[in-house]
């Protein structure tokens, strides 16, 4: 049999369409920070690459037993309103380009491990008229209970009905980087546990026009916050509650009320932090000499804080070149 070039390439195209996505740019990156410890966070690396364009596909892929790199192509609408798709261990969930994600719902991780959530837009459970405070429903963008090795990177999370990111009940070895958290009441909550074991790295994020929990860290064993930009926060910025230890480095706070706060048992050490038009509490050193050193766990690079207001809004959030 002799195939012409055109027929052969048509057959190739058909075959590749059948197996789903063939390529996925930057989909096998691995986490840095605390998520790089405890065996590391690789998500679905080494598994098949699949693409979800509809909710039922996403639900099925996310629940699979095998490792998968799951591309979300386009905006998937959750149903019922506020539904959080359960994600099982060893998955990378990644948006295709800058305009993919989930609307009117989110993701839920409960007692799982090794999960990466990148390059997604998640929004739309916010009801500004009746529920600005987000107290009527538990409609988070990303809710995680009792799980380990999680990397949340490069997402744009905004206008949801409850928390944008909730790290609850001893969820440990987490890195939250390059996200844009915006136009929202409760941004990032950590805690809901009497145990002091969780370790979280939070770097290069842009918190913009949020109210509280930027983050609220309750009983966080080690919180390492660096290269973050906080702008127009009306409630409070970084809050060490319970027995939390926060190491806060190279951050820029602009128009923030109560930028850095320690509760009665909280400890804080700061390093090269800038403030512009801020008011209220600024606890730069609360038993700072007893706070952990991040460099004994991993290597990292601090930005010049004067670059943060320019670089972070540009770098945070989903990008066209990822997931394609
Ligand atoms: C986490 O899950 C384990 C069982 O896997 C349970 O024993 C523990 O109480 C849970 N922790 C919290 C704070 O709920
Ligand atoms: C600041 O954030 C609040 C919401 O928390 C918003 O209503 C207000 O418009 C924002 N202001 C600016 C200047 O962006
Ligand atoms: C940081 O990097 C240096 C040089 O590569 C290495 O010797 C050191 O072990 C690293 N530290 C950690 C905590 O990984």
UniProtKB/TrEMBL annotation:
Keywords: Carbohydrate metabolism, Lyase, Polysaccharide degradation, Secreted, Signal. One of its GO terms (molecular function) is pectate lyase activity. The keyword Signal applies. It comes from the Eukaryota. It is found in: Secreted. Residues 48-259 form the Pectate lyase domain. The keyword Secreted applies. One of its GO terms (cellular component) is extracellular region. GO terms for biological process: polysaccharide catabolic process. Residues 1-21 form the signal peptide. Belongs to the polysaccharide lyase 1 family. This is Polysaccharide lyase family 1 protein. The lineage of its organism: Eukaryota, Fungi, Dikarya, Ascomycota, Pezizomycotina.
């Amino acid at each position: 049999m002799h195939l012409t070039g055109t027929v052969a390439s048509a057959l190739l195209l058909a075959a590749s369409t059948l197996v789903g996505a063939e390529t996925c740019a930057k989909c096998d990156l691995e986490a840095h920070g605390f998520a790089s410890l405890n065996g590391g966070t690789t998500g679905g690396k080494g598994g098949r690459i699949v693409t979800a364009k509809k909710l039922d596909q996403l639900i099925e892929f996310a629940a699979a037993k095998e490792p998968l790199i799951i591309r979300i192509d386009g905006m998937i609408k959750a149903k019922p309103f506020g539904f959080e798709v359960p994600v099982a261990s060893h998955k990378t969930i990644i948006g295709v380009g800058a305009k993919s994600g989930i609307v009117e719902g989110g993701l839920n991780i409960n007692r799982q491990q090794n999960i990466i959530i990148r390059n997604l837009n998640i929004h739309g459970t916010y009801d500004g008229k009746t529920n600005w405070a987000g107290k009527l429903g538990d409609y988070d963008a990303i809710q995680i209970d009792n799980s380990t090795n999680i990397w949340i990177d490069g997402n744009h999370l905004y206008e949801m009905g409850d928390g944008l990111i909730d790290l609850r009940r001893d969820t440990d070895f987490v890195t939250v980087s390059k996200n844009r958290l915006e136009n929202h009441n409760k941004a990032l909550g950590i805690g809901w546990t009497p145990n002091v074991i969780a370790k979280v790295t939070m770097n290069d994020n842009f918190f913009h026009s949020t109210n509280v929990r930027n983050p609220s860290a309750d009983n966080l064993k080690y919180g390492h916050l660096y290269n973050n930009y906080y702008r127009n926060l009306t409630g409070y910025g970084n809050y060490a509650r319970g027995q939390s230890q926060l190491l806060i480095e190279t951050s820029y706070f602009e128009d923030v009320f109560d930028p850095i706060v320690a509760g009665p048992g909280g400890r804080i050490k700061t390093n090269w932090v800038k403030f512009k038009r801020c008011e209220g509490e600024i606890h730069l050193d609360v038993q700072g000499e007893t706070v952990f050193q991040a460099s004994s766990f991993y290597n990292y690079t601090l930005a010049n804080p004067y670059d943060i207001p320019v670089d972070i809004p540009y770098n945070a959030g989903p990008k066209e070149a990822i997931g394609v």
